[in-house]
Specification:
Length: 159
Protein backbone atom coordinates (compact mmCIF):
# COMPACT_ATOMS: atom_id res chain seq x y z
CA UNK A 1 0.00 0.00 0.00
CA UNK A 2 1.28 3.44 -0.96
CA UNK A 3 1.96 5.56 2.12
CA UNK A 4 0.81 8.77 0.47
CA UNK A 5 -2.53 7.19 -0.45
CA UNK A 6 -2.98 5.97 3.12
CA UNK A 7 -2.05 9.43 4.43
CA UNK A 8 -4.65 11.02 2.14
CA UNK A 9 -7.45 8.63 3.11
CA UNK A 10 -6.54 8.92 6.79
CA UNK A 11 -6.62 12.72 6.57
CA UNK A 12 -10.02 12.66 4.84
CA UNK A 13 -11.46 10.26 7.41
CA UNK A 14 -9.99 12.30 10.29
CA UNK A 15 -11.59 15.45 8.88
CA UNK A 16 -15.01 13.75 8.78
CA UNK A 17 -14.55 12.44 12.29
CA UNK A 18 -13.43 15.82 13.62
CA UNK A 19 -16.40 17.54 12.01
CA UNK A 20 -18.69 15.12 13.82
CA UNK A 21 -16.99 15.89 17.12
CA UNK A 22 -17.49 19.64 16.60
CA UNK A 23 -21.16 19.05 15.84
CA UNK A 24 -21.72 17.61 19.31
CA UNK A 25 -20.92 20.26 21.91
CA UNK A 26 -20.92 19.45 25.61
CA UNK A 27 -24.15 21.43 25.99
CA UNK A 28 -25.92 18.71 23.99
CA UNK A 29 -25.46 16.15 26.75
CA UNK A 30 -28.67 17.25 28.50
CA UNK A 31 -30.66 17.24 25.26
CA UNK A 32 -29.41 13.79 24.28
CA UNK A 33 -29.91 12.27 27.75
CA UNK A 34 -33.56 13.40 27.72
CA UNK A 35 -34.38 11.68 24.43
CA UNK A 36 -36.39 8.49 24.65
CA UNK A 37 -34.36 5.64 23.20
CA UNK A 38 -35.21 2.06 22.23
CA UNK A 39 -34.12 -0.79 24.49
CA UNK A 40 -31.46 -1.94 22.01
CA UNK A 41 -29.61 1.39 22.23
CA UNK A 42 -25.95 0.51 22.91
CA UNK A 43 -24.25 2.13 25.89
CA UNK A 44 -22.70 5.51 25.08
CA UNK A 45 -19.20 4.07 25.52
CA UNK A 46 -19.77 1.72 22.55
CA UNK A 47 -20.00 4.52 19.98
CA UNK A 48 -16.45 5.92 20.15
CA UNK A 49 -15.02 2.40 20.17
CA UNK A 50 -17.08 1.33 17.16
CA UNK A 51 -16.44 4.51 15.18
CA UNK A 52 -12.69 4.51 15.88
CA UNK A 53 -12.45 0.98 14.48
CA UNK A 54 -14.70 1.82 11.53
CA UNK A 55 -12.79 4.99 10.65
CA UNK A 56 -9.50 3.07 10.67
CA UNK A 57 -11.12 0.43 8.48
CA UNK A 58 -12.44 3.03 6.01
CA UNK A 59 -9.05 4.74 5.69
CA UNK A 60 -7.13 1.50 5.22
CA UNK A 61 -9.47 -0.33 2.86
CA UNK A 62 -9.98 2.81 0.78
CA UNK A 63 -6.23 3.23 0.38
CA UNK A 64 -5.98 -0.42 -0.71
CA UNK A 65 -8.78 0.04 -3.26
CA UNK A 66 -7.44 3.29 -4.70
CA UNK A 67 -3.93 1.87 -5.03
CA UNK A 68 -5.19 -1.34 -6.60
CA UNK A 69 -7.18 0.57 -9.20
CA UNK A 70 -4.18 2.76 -9.98
CA UNK A 71 -1.67 -0.10 -10.18
CA UNK A 72 -3.92 -2.02 -12.56
CA UNK A 73 -4.32 1.00 -14.84
CA UNK A 74 -7.94 1.68 -13.85
CA UNK A 75 -7.45 5.37 -13.16
CA UNK A 76 -11.10 6.20 -13.94
CA UNK A 77 -12.24 3.71 -11.31
CA UNK A 78 -9.76 5.21 -8.85
CA UNK A 79 -11.18 8.70 -9.49
CA UNK A 80 -14.75 7.46 -9.15
CA UNK A 81 -13.81 5.67 -5.93
CA UNK A 82 -12.33 8.89 -4.52
CA UNK A 83 -15.54 10.74 -5.44
CA UNK A 84 -17.66 8.03 -3.77
CA UNK A 85 -15.46 8.12 -0.67
CA UNK A 86 -15.72 11.93 -0.53
CA UNK A 87 -19.51 11.80 -0.75
CA UNK A 88 -19.60 9.08 1.89
CA UNK A 89 -17.48 11.09 4.32
CA UNK A 90 -19.64 14.19 3.75
CA UNK A 91 -22.75 12.15 4.54
CA UNK A 92 -20.98 10.67 7.56
CA UNK A 93 -20.05 14.08 8.97
CA UNK A 94 -23.40 15.59 7.97
CA UNK A 95 -25.32 13.09 10.05
CA UNK A 96 -23.75 14.37 13.26
CA UNK A 97 -24.68 17.92 12.38
CA UNK A 98 -28.28 16.98 11.61
CA UNK A 99 -28.72 14.93 14.77
CA UNK A 100 -26.54 16.53 17.43
CA UNK A 101 -26.21 20.16 16.37
CA UNK A 102 -29.58 20.87 14.76
CA UNK A 103 -31.69 18.21 16.54
CA UNK A 104 -33.38 17.25 13.26
CA UNK A 105 -34.34 13.69 14.13
CA UNK A 106 -36.36 12.93 10.98
CA UNK A 107 -33.71 14.42 8.69
CA UNK A 108 -31.00 12.54 10.55
CA UNK A 109 -32.88 9.25 9.99
CA UNK A 110 -32.97 10.02 6.26
CA UNK A 111 -29.30 11.02 6.39
CA UNK A 112 -28.46 7.73 8.07
CA UNK A 113 -30.29 5.84 5.31
CA UNK A 114 -28.33 7.76 2.66
CA UNK A 115 -25.11 7.00 4.54
CA UNK A 116 -26.03 3.31 4.63
CA UNK A 117 -26.58 3.24 0.87
CA UNK A 118 -23.34 5.13 0.29
CA UNK A 119 -21.42 2.80 2.63
CA UNK A 120 -22.77 -0.28 0.86
CA UNK A 121 -21.73 1.25 -2.47
CA UNK A 122 -18.27 1.99 -1.07
CA UNK A 123 -17.91 -1.62 0.14
CA UNK A 124 -18.98 -2.85 -3.31
CA UNK A 125 -16.44 -0.60 -5.01
CA UNK A 126 -13.77 -1.74 -2.55
CA UNK A 127 -14.54 -5.40 -3.29
CA UNK A 128 -14.26 -4.64 -7.01
CA UNK A 129 -10.68 -3.53 -6.39
CA UNK A 130 -9.74 -6.13 -3.77
CA UNK A 131 -12.10 -8.82 -2.51
CA UNK A 132 -10.48 -9.08 0.95
CA UNK A 133 -10.61 -5.31 1.45
CA UNK A 134 -14.27 -5.38 0.43
CA UNK A 135 -15.01 -7.99 3.08
CA UNK A 136 -13.01 -5.98 5.61
CA UNK A 137 -15.18 -2.92 4.92
CA UNK A 138 -18.46 -4.84 5.32
CA UNK A 139 -18.90 -3.88 9.02
CA UNK A 140 -19.24 -0.24 7.96
CA UNK A 141 -22.50 -0.53 5.98
CA UNK A 142 -23.80 -3.03 8.55
CA UNK A 143 -23.17 -0.54 11.37
CA UNK A 144 -24.74 2.23 9.30
CA UNK A 145 -27.82 0.07 8.72
CA UNK A 146 -28.08 -0.47 12.48
CA UNK A 147 -27.61 3.28 13.01
CA UNK A 148 -30.42 3.96 10.51
CA UNK A 149 -32.78 1.69 12.44
CA UNK A 150 -31.73 3.31 15.71
CA UNK A 151 -32.05 6.90 14.42
CA UNK A 152 -35.45 6.12 12.93
CA UNK A 153 -36.65 4.56 16.16
CA UNK A 154 -35.39 7.54 18.20
CA UNK A 155 -37.20 9.90 15.83
CA UNK A 156 -40.45 7.93 16.20
CA UNK A 157 -40.18 7.87 19.98
CA UNK A 158 -39.54 11.62 20.20
CA UNK A 159 -41.97 13.19 17.71
Amino acid sequence: MNRSTLAATTTAVAAASSSGIFANPQSNQDWYSQLRKPPYQPPNAAFPVAWTALYGDIATTSAVAIDRFRVTGQRDKARRYIAALSLNLLLNAGWSWLFFRYHKLGASALGAAALTASSADLARRTADADRRAGWALLPYPLWCAFATALATHIWRLNR
